[in-house]
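By convention, the token line describes the chain's fold. To illustrate:
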Amino acid sequence: MHEPEPVRTAPVEPVRPTREDEVAAAGSELIGGPLGRHALLGGSWWTPLRVVTLVAIGMFALGLVQKAPCYHSAWFFGASSQYTHACYSDIPHLYQGRGFADGLVPYFDKLPGDMDYLEYPVLTGVFMEVAAWLTPGSGSIQHQEQWYWFVNAGMLMACTAVIAVCVTRTHRRRPWDGLLVALAPALALTATINWDLLAVALTAAAMLMWSRGRALAFGILLGLATAAKLYPVFLLAPLLALCWRTGKWREFFQAVGGAVVAWLVVNLPVMLFAFEGWSKFYTFSQERGIDFGSFWLIWAQNSSSPPSTGFVNTSATVLVVLCFLGLTALTLAAPRRPRFAQLAFLMVAAFIVTNKVYSPQYVLWLVPLAVLARPKWRDILIWQACEVTYYLGIWMYLAYTTSGEAHKGLPTQGYHWAIAVHLLGTLYLCAMVVRDIVLPERDVVRRSGDDDPSGGVLDGAADVFVLGAAARPARHAAHFDAPQVDWGRPERPPYEERSL
């Protein structure tokens, strides 16, 4: 008796950007043209994950080369030259300035000078301290600072690899979107300015865990990310709105519980035994005045009566709350449930745009979220061009203010234009994401046949609470009205991207 032959189903083919994105297709001509079907589905060692990770490491290395003028002299022998070469980094300066060269323990030992304690969250302080342990203590202070920057660069390169892997794997059928992260020029330029990549890597890992339906692991990683930088906690706000619409309260509270416990495990020991040092980050954030990169700075520098720090703190908080309420209303009233990555990007972008300071490395917070929210090459490149403009603008402005009567660089009004370019670029990408939510048929991810690849338990979930037109009748599982894709005919892409 013969056993029936097993039914063979066509493999789920990864989405090929060069077949659905005109900019990706045009750019691929530089390396031989669009990838073919067998290049993706064959047994080659060059899988999308490996290619994206190696490209990300390569771009990171180019960013290190770009810092070479500062590494050799500008960090140590000239205040303005590190700005004219656009290679400034906090890392070597804070090795001595925050007591690491003298063996002081962060949060427990007072620092000499105006900054009495380290003004960074605890997990970032641990990262900085580990790098100090690995830095040779012999030689001149310049030699030690160079080593400290190199050690941190190696650790931050590992964070970059983690980000590339996590973004590539979050959308299962869209691994090549990870190239948008790997090739982001702003990532290469700003990666070693500060320690933000630690929080970005933990946040990217948290997004990957949520996409796999692991709510508790998501919460733990998000709590650790918040212990390294404040912004990751804002991802819980859009998650609240999405879980409200779908009724996934169990998973939401698992995520919140994991985040709270992980944050407390890191912070509580320092909080109990060195409260004054632990609280420095929060008091510094409140007391810090209007600073670089914000629209508040444009207001302050063009007004005879600039706003006070207290007014800006209150106003920025109110604006963020209003943005959250607007995103919640959008989530509950949208014709189709928004994707988690879309709302996460919009929430963090709202915080960045309304904040009283925008350091150039803050763009790192948005890069992975932007790629997951709107993986369209044209829009990401437009936004990145705006961020590179701002990156050059702030250093040229600082060169202008530190070069004395020579006035080398960009004057104040020119710097204001650079800030405006950054703000407009971010708002443009936000507008594209909001349009995708209001008109889900324009969403690049959903036009490929997916619902919410980064949504985890939200992917294809039924709606239980909606508002407005979406409630007449209530929209149910989003994948019910998704286009049906015939995966047995891979010679033709399921959708063709048209000019928008």
DSSP finds 24 helices and no strands in the chain. The longest helix spans residues 141-170. Residues 156 and 269 are 25 Å apart (CA to CA).
